[in-house]
Each structure stands twice: as C-alpha cells, then as structure tokens.
C-alpha cells in the first residue's frame, strides 16, 4: 500500500479508526475530529496513526504489518484499544517477536477517557515526527554519499572480506575495466587484475585488512577488451574488524607513467635535437639559462659555458623589433606559452631569423619551475615570405586583373583589379571557376586550344570577350602561365588580363574610317570624274541634266558619308559617366515623332511601356536615329513599315536589362554587312559598305551593351539594342541630344 498521508496537504495528522461497531467508531470519530483528520474507512489507508479495536486486529494484521515494513524506518504507530476483561488475544509490544517493527505500539483500555486518549496519541505522533526527521536525514546522507560515489572520477570497488567478490562499484569503475555494473558484481577481483600482479594484489588486500588502510601504484588490470591499464590504488576497511569489506579507490595512471617514460626519452632527444633548446630558471635573478643543447651552440656560435647564466636577450640587437620581444615578456609575466619570430645575432655578428617558442614547466602544484625555449633558424623561409609579400603587394596594386587557379581551374586568388573589372568580389570569385566571366563569345574550340596549350606547360596568349557580373561585355588581352612544383607537376595557373575594350574600339574606328575615306570616297570621286567628263562631251541638253543629277546624288552621298565620319569622331570625344541614366521610353517616342513628320509615306508603330531607364547618355540617340533612317531611307517598299518597341529584355535578366527593338519590312541588311559587324572587325576581303551599323555598334558598346540582329521573315530585319538597366531614382539624367 502506497500513498501520501493527508497531513502533507492539510497540515493535521491523520488517524484511521479500525473499530468494530458503528456506535464506538462514531463516538471516537467525534472525540478525535477536533484535533486530527479522522479516516473511518474499511480499507487500510495511509495515515500517521491507527486506532485498532481488539476485534479488528485479526482482520488488518497482515496489511498493517506490510505497511509498517514499507514505511520503515519511519515510525507508524498502532494504538490498541483493549476491552476490560479481554483474554489478551492480541500480543502486546513486549510480547511480540520476529523481524521488523512490532505490530502494536501502545495499548489503552476501554472505556478510555478523552485526556488519556489524547495523551497516548500525542506521544505516539511525537515519536513519529522524530522518526520522520531522522529518516529524512538518513535519506539525505545516503543520497549525498550515493551521488559522490557515482560521480567521482576515481574507480571505486567494494570487495568482500575474502577478496573473492565485488559487492559494489561505481560508473567510473565500469568505465575503467569495460564491464557493466551487473557484470562486475558477478566476477572475482582477480579476474580484472593482470595475471602477473594477482599475488601482489592478494598480499595488498591482506596488508589493508591488518592495517585498516594502504596504497600502491604498482598494480596492473586488464579490461574486458584485453587492454592493459596501470593503476594507482588506495584502500581502507569499512569496519574495525579482522574480516571487513575493503573499499578500493583506483586511478588510471597509464598515461602518466607513459608520459614519464616519454619525458625521459625527450630529455635524451633534447640533447641531440637539431634545433636550439634552452631551459631557464625563473627563481634566479633575470631568469638565466641553466641548460643549452648542442643545437643552440651550433645556431648561435656561443658555447655552453658562454651561454649559461645569461638571459637569452643577449642574442638580440639593433635590427630586433620591439613587438615580438614585448610579446615574449608579457607571456612570461603571465606564465603563458608564446611563439614569435624575430631577428637574432650570432657571436660573429651575423643576423638570422629565429622562431622562438617558450613554454612554462610546472610542478604538480601548478607552480612554474622552469621555462623551456626552442630556437629554430627560419631565415630561408622568412626571406621567401618577404619575397612573397612583396610579390603579393605588387599584384594587389597591379593595373591588370590577376587571378590564380588550381590545376583544375578553381579560383584561389583574385586581385583588386579583377574585382573592380569583373564586378565579382574576392569572396564571390574564390572557389568558383573563370566561367563566371565567360561571355559565350568564344566557341568551345577556343577553350580546347587554351587547355591543350597550358596543360602542355606553355604560355597562352589571346584576345577575348569577357562578361561582368552585371552582364556588360569587355575585351581583354589574356595571358595564362602554368606553375609547376619541384617535380614538374602543374599545380596552378596564373592569368593576367588587360582591358583592351577602348583600344579595340579605337582600332575599329581607325580601320573603318581609313577604309571609308580610302575606298568609298575614292570610288565616289571616280564616278564624279567620269560623269563630269561625260557632261563635257555631251551636247544634248536633256542628257546633260541627267548627268548633272547623277553628279549631285553622288555628291550628296559623299557629303552624308563625311557627316557620319564626323559623327564617329564626336561619339568618342567624351568619356561616358557610368552613373548617367536615360529614359529610353521618352527618347524613342521623341525620335519616332520626328521621323513620322519627316517621312510622311512611312508608317511607324510604337510599342512603349512605362518609363524605362538605361545606363546611357544622349549619344544613344545616334544609334536609334541611324537604325530608323536605315529602315526608312533604304526601304524598297512603296510604304515603309517600321515597328519600334522598348521593353524589359527577353533574352537577358529583365530586372537588369532593357531592349530597344527596331523592325522593318525592307530588303534586309546584307549578309556580309551583318557578318562584319558581328565579328567586330574588317578585313581586306570582308568589310561593310558604310558607317551606319558601325555607329550603332560603337554607341551601344560604349555603354557595355550588345547589338543583336534578328531575321524578320518574310521581309526585313529586326535589330535589338540591349542596354544595362538602372533604377528610376538615379540622381543624374541625360538631356536630349543635340545635333551630332
């Protein structure tokens, strides 16, 4: 039977009445109710005291005895009410025998008066309160001991007096030998002691029994897995008798003993080490050296006799920096280890870079007894590092973009110029491949040749088009150099790129202008001269007029060509401000309106959206006008039809790019003309017939944009100008273009 008595919740003691007869039970209940919580239930309930009539004891005897055992050592009193003239069928406390607490604790004769009953019950409950307090103290002590027993890091074994049985163990003991607690309680202590140490262990247990305590650090145990562990053991008997259980406290000192052996070996190694080793004594004035090895003598040029008794600072000199010296001094003041690199001086005055490591050596109490120092000559490495730092500083400040990849092409380093030119930060680029700046303008054959070249150990040089993070295109002259290790294996590639976008555009201008002025104007002049000669030879008035008209048309064409050459010149006279923005919706609308008035026979379809801003200035008007002029003037249809559309890009990211598309129903742009523009260069065998498309190409390239030609079947051509988009809150706005 378990449960909490009502005293724990109500504050009163509880008394259960086990009385035969309703009248007697009711009388007692009324009698006791003013002081106690009275339980009048036929089933035995948890209570602080039981009042039992003599007739009811046989009925509740077993339940009461079991309940008193369960609550022991807490005193649970039973007061017997015995009728006068009773034959004594219930044993009194003095008459009870057997294990456990007595069944009856007090007897009162009936009829019982109020004073006697209250006094007897009060005495019994007072004894109960005392037992509760003692039980709680005992339980607390037991709990604390158990927690200590279970939480200590030392392995605890309780061994039977005969030494042949383990009767108790803690978790640390299980961890030490690898057995569970249940397994340890079934094995003999001898089974976990190494066979070579069993006789020594028996002798040790006997000494502990005789002396009451003992200790040893010369025992070895074997774990369940067969591993050998060396133990330091303290023991004591649990009782003052010849045959008492023994409590053993075992500590694993395997690592400590191994460390001692290791220290012995290290001492030998110190004497023969190829680095300088010193030991100092901080208890002596100025912490002088008391030991130096041969490596120190070889490194510094000072003999042992010249070094002992001096502080290591005598190796410092004019070129020794203050910072590492201060760092060592601070670490020594705080009893902390430290490693620094500094310039020292040999006996002959020559300098060398030394990596100095100092560590405190402590005793068992944690007090610093000595300092051990190591000096390693790192002059060669330091010189390489300084050269590397110089090289890195030069690369960081170089005017060319530089990036380094591993042999697989993964970027490991980029310099600031690469970041500013590509738009990718160092964090964004490192760990990725150069594909992040790939524009798609080079075919796979180009990259196959590149890899074949650099993997063969040769340097690669090429001109190519890259693409910034924003999508803008730029031209570079690229050099890739393989880097190999001492075994000749290629480990890295160094790429240097110079931006030749402007240079390339200038070259295109010169090539085209040279071709136009040398070829087109020469041919035009030949026509003029021929017609002029015919004019002179002609006698018919009508024919003369025809020739004159031809001369005029050609002269007009040459004048137009000259004007466009001037336009090209003005196009590149001023640098482009990257923060400038233009509303292409308004720009295109104004241009279309002007063309509609000028060319009344042509029809224009304008598909505009909300205001769209691009990174461009008023020179963009040149490109748009040139395309509209080409769509109308060179259209062979009776009614030229031109559609102009401005919209977020379809091919590129719409949030970052804007397209201006101009489509017509004319004869289309000649294939050779398109090929020349798309290839971006002219050759003696392939060139355009005019400046118009070049003006468009150069203008859009100025803004980092792209020109795309789309087949507008069954007739005509569609030209798409893709330009970088900017936000509508740009502080700078382009003004309408003046006459160019």
Task: Walk me through this protein's architecture.
This protein is an alpha+beta fold. The chain folds into 6 domains: 7-143, Response regulator (Rossmann fold, 3-Layer(aba) Sandwich); 152-257, 2-Layer Sandwich (Beta-Lactamase), CATH 3.30.450; 273-383, Beta-Lactamase (2-Layer Sandwich), CATH 3.30.450; 398-499, 2-Layer Sandwich (Beta-Lactamase), CATH 3.30.450.20; 504-568; 582-724, Heat Shock Protein 90 (2-Layer Sandwich). It is built from 22 helices and 27 strands. The strands form 6 sheets. The protein has a 5-stranded parallel sheet, sandwiched between helices. Strand 19 (473-484) and strand 20 form a beta hairpin. Helix 17 runs antiparallel to helix 18 (541-571) and helix 20 packs antiparallel against helix 22. It is elongated, with a radius of gyration of 53 Å. The N and C termini lie far apart (109 Å).
């Amino acid at each position: 039977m378990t449960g909490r008595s009502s005293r724990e919740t109500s504050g009163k003691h509880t008394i259960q009445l086990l009385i035969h007869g309703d009248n007697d039970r009711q009388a007692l209940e009324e009698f006791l109710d003013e002081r106690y919580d009275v339980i009048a239930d036929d089933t035995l309930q948890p209570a602080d005291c039981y009042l039992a009539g003599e007739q009811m004891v046989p009925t509740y005897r077993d339940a009461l005895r079991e309940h008193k055992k369960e609550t022991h050592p807490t005193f649970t009193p039973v007061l017997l009410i015995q009728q006068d003239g009773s034959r004594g069928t219930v044993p009194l406390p003095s008459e009870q025998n057997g294990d456990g607490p007595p069944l009856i604790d007090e007897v009162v004769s009936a009829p019982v008066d109020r004073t006697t009953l209250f006094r007897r019950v009060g005495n019994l409950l007072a004894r109960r309160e005392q037992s509760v307090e003692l039980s709680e103290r005992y339980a607390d002590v037991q709990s604390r001991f158990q927690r200590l027993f279970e939480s200590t890091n030392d392995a605890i074994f309780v061994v039977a007096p005969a030494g042949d049985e383990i009767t108790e163990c803690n978790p640390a003991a299980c961890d030490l030998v690898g057995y569970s607690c249940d397994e340890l309680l079934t094995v003999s202590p001898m089974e976990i002691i190494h066979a070579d140490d069993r006789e020594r262990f028996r002798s040790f247990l006997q000494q502990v029994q005789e002396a009451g305590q003992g200790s040893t650090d010369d025992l070895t145990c074997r774990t369940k897995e067969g591993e050998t562990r060396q133990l330091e053991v303290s023991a004591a008997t649990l009782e003052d008798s010849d045959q008492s259980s023994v409590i053993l406290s075992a500590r694993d000192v395997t690592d400590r003993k191994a460390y001692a052996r290791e220290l012995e070996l290290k001492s030998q190694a110190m004497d023969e080490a190829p680095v300088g080793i010193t030991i100092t004594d901080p208890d002596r004035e100025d912490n002088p050296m008391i030991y130096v090895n041969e490596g120190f003598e070889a490194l510094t040029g000072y003999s042992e006799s010249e070094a002992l008794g001096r502080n290591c600072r005598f190796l410092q000199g004019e070129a020794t920096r203050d910072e590492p010296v201060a760092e060592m001094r601070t670490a020594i003041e705080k009893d902390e280890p430290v490693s620094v690199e500094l310039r020292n001086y040999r006996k002959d005055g020559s300098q060398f870079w030394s990596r100095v490591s100092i560590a405190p050596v402590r005793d068992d109490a944690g007090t610093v007894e000595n300092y051990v120092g190591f000096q390693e000559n790192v002059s060669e490495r330091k010189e390489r590092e300084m050269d590397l730092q110089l090289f890195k500083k030069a690369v960081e400040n170089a005017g060319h973009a530089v990036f380094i990849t591993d042999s697989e092409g993964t970027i490991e380093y980029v310099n600031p110029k690469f970041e500013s030119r590509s738009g990718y930060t160092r964090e964004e680029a490192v760990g990725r491949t150069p594909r992040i700046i790939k524009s798609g303008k080079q075919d796979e054959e180009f990259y196959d040749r590149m890899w074949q070249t650099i993997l063969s150990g040769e340097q690669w040089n090429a001109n190519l088009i890259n693409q910034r993070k924003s999508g803008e295109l730029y031209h570079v002259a690229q050099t890739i150099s393989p880097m190999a290790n001492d075994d000749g294996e290629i480990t890295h590639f160094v790429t240097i790129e110079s931006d030749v976008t402007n240079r390339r555009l200038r070259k295109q201008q010169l090539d085209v202008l040279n071709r136009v002025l040398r070829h087109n104007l020469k041919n035009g002049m030949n026509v003029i001269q021929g017609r002029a000669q015919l004019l002179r030879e002609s006698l018919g008035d009508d024919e003369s007029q025809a020739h004159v008209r031809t001369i005029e048309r050609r002269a007009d064409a040459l004048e137009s060509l000259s004007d466009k050459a001037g336009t090209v010149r003005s196009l590149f006279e001023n640098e482009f401000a990257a923060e400038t923005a233009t509303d292409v919706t308004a720009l295109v609308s104004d241009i279309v309106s002007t063309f509609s008035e000028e060319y009344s026979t042509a029809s224009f379809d304008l598909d505009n959206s909300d205001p769209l801003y691009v990174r461009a200035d008023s020179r963009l008007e040149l490109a748009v006008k040139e395309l509209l002029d080409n769509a109308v003037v060179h259209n062979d249809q009776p009614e030229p039809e031109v559609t102009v559309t401005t919209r977020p890009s379809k091919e590129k990211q719409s949030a970052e790019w804007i397209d201006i598309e101009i489509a017509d129903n004319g004869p289309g742009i000649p294939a050779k003309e398109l090929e020349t523009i798309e290839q971006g260069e002219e050759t003696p065998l392939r060139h355009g017939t005019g400046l118009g498309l070049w003006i468009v190409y150069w203008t859009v390239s100025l803004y980092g944009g792209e020109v795309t030609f789309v087949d507008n079947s069954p007739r005509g051509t569609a030209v798409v100008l893709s330009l970088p988009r900017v936000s509508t809150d740009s502080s700078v706005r382009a003004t309408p273009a003046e006459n160019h």
